[in-house]
Amino acid sequence: MSMITPEVIAAHQLTPSEYDKILKLLGREPTFTELGIFSVMWSEHCSYKSTRIHLKKLPTESKHILQGPGENAGIIDIGDGLAIAFKIESHNHPSFIEPFQGAATGVGGILRDIFTMGARPIAVMDSLRFGRLDDPKTGDRNGRILEGVVSGIAHYGNCFGVPTVGGECVFEESYSGNPLVNVFALGVFRHNEIFYGKASGVGNPVIYVGAKTGRDGIHGASMASAEFTEESKQKRPNVQVGDPFMEKLLLEACLEAMKTGAIVGIQDMGAAGLTSSSCEMGSRAGTGVEMDLMYVPQRETGMTPYEMMLSESQERMLLVAERGREQEVYDVFKKWGLDAVQVGVVTSDGMLRIKNHGEVFAEIPNHALADEAPRYDRPRTTPPRIAPLNGPNVQSASLTADLKALLASGDICSKRWIWEQYDHQVRTNTIAGPGSDAAIVRIKGTSTSVAMALDGNSRYCALDPREGTKLIVAECCRNLSTVGALPVATTNNLNFGNPERPEIMAQIVESIDGLAEACKFFEVPVTGGNVSLYNETLGTPIYPTPVVGIVGTLPTGMPVGTAFKSAGRSIILLGGIGNPEHQELGGTQYAKVIHDSLWGKPPKLDMDYEKRVQQVIRELVRNRLVESAHDLSDGGFAVALAESSFGPESIGSDVHLDSALPPELLLFHEGPSRILVSTANPQKVFEAAALKKVQAVEIGVTLEARVIIHNRAQLLFDVSVAELRDSWTNALEHLLHNPVLVPTA
Amino acid sequence: MKVGIVVFPGSNCDHDAWYAISENLQQHAEFIWHDSESLGDVDAVILPGGFSYGDYLRCGAIAKFSPVMRAIKSFAHDGGLVLGLCNGFQVLTESGLLPGALVRNDNLKFVCRTVGLEVVTTNSPFTSQARKGQVLRVPIAHGEGFYIADDYTLDQLEADDRVVLRYVENPNGSMRHIAGILNEQRNVMGMMPHPERAADPLMGSTDGLFILKSLLSANVAHTPVLATFTS
Fold it and tell me: What's the complex ipTM?
């Protein structure tokens, strides 16, 4: 007689013990609708059940933090009575099934997280990871996924009117069956304009606004919590369809309605739609929410309560208004041509009560859904050794050819083909956009700008998740410092495989430990983020891929760019060439591109030294004591030097090094804590560096049109800027549009 | 001078235009909502960039039916200055205030970059402050900026000195590299590039000010309509 068979429970991805917990919490058997509601709220995607106990280790407080984890987005104070809200979220699984809509709705979802708090979104960044484009078997498909994802992001962000100001794009075999699409958004508002997702005030009306509900995306949250199998391809209807115009209207209407003062609480309907927004708002306020679904605007007929509660139709919000002031809210939404309908009321009993035409279909304590989700301390071993400790002989046949190959490789080459499809200037705040070490967006009406960067490095994390994650935080902070910004706070997206496998769980915990340690040390507390697990296809997990987004502040002014501006300037390597005993090549781009290999350990990080290097560069940039500044990262010194010559002036360099390192290591190791600057005031740079006990090595001078490097008496290379630029500029288009030649047998 | 900036649902460069006029140039600017039947007492109108009504059908195809466009047509008919930027240009061609059409870029992709624009004529209220032949560095950001018209119309535009701006390097396939044109009365201009994005040194170029300053310094006494004018 009961519909709830063990098969039905399993189909909802609930374990028998989770089902027992539901029985205990309810004191009875759930209805089918209730089972669906529990399954989405207790999914990995919504509940963080595998990571919650570990995420507690992350630092979350500082004097700048106004809102830490647990809300729709984190909030930091930036002075002048202003604050910014920011967060990152993944849309990995939908983007593989349907790249264009998957990525588009990823942008839509994170934008709603920002404006549901009252902030106007002013910047977006994306961290993208795909399979290799030069793989004979999967290259074409990986390219199609890339094109779909990029046009999806462009479609949504451009129409909505938010600039996409930066990000990263990486190609690695392990993402071939499981691309990663992590989207970051940031918004600005006044302290007194902050709204929370709270259903306060018994008797207050619960109002549904925005797009109508359809059957799209049902069970999206549970889909994002399962591995990919052959059947996943049949899940296409689970992917939602985005409407950026509707989202733009929703943004303007929400911000205008908030100004009326009639709104008590508001939350977007993201993953798990109507379910998560209603029970989380009730749970936060300690209230109940009672809704009758007959009032929900629907664009399909015959929808069941189960379908309506689990729908993930886009561009919808749930809000609680002050009783008696509903009309003020309705008037604003009517002006923008949007539905705004009372669907329920805030109650005192703490229950989520779902009716349809008066008949009760679900009655669950809000806190049971939002706070009583199972938490697992899953068994873990140690992170698996993915690559050998020792690598091949790395003697180079031609350093010039190696450098050109690196510049033309997917990870390092110019990403112009991608970012020109994004409107990166709308709202006229973008002081430094794509291609900069960190993006800078000014805050109009103030003298403050906000800088932001996204970083990941799964090769380092594959070799050592803890040290790799620390290196990522260090690099992200360095990117900010290099443009003169003080890093303030962090958001993070943890992309890993199946946590039920002890070796994957070990990677997750090690990475979180590294994140906690580095965020504490660099004083960039974590204000929230996203965990994306089960990133596996046919049993093969992705490399552990924590992605870190850090925001900082700086005084508004003309940016100091990455490129050399004039000939005859001193070139100084801040941080030094690197300790000869500590250098590793196994995790570098050199190992990847030239040797198609991965081995050993990630570069060694001295966090204390790193912090001092960053203090020095911030001071130099803010005081205009350098003409250019570019941090060393992928590809090491030689790549940073080449990139510094790719400005409009094509100013190259004549460099004389004095190192005992073999040239391959000297040019291409990725030791952190190093920044390349050019300056007309070398003495000032030496003084600033000496004050913080940081090495500042004068390595040469800028000159027109050529890049020349000597080490001691040996000429390492002498090549024209034009030749290097050729390799770098159009490489991505070549990789995308030149079919891979497969040798015939 | 008082500039009205039209806001359609989906306009997203409206605030940028407002900021350029009122903050960068310290002149009076105000927003005009799309369902407004009147333009008030403005001296010039800007149709800003964005995606009016979502532009899911054809860019500007819905906007031409909005109440404010009726007001703008009669304003233009009476000699009022109308500047359409990006989506605003698309709306002007859809409305019949300017000839030709804007279709998808030849590579079928949205493109956002700063381009060189040659000032072809200074005989217009929108370029009077520039030099003929001057190259302006101004950003473009559009998916449908490919200007097309029949040969007769193109010849006519050139013969009448109504091609105002041409791309130095054509980014979208536009016929005869056209980036901006005038109507016959020379009081309505449409251009795909965004001068409001090049109005502040922090944004990397201030060349857009040549266009905006020309507009602001134009003689706003609405010229009486010629008897021969037909719409």
Answer: 0.94
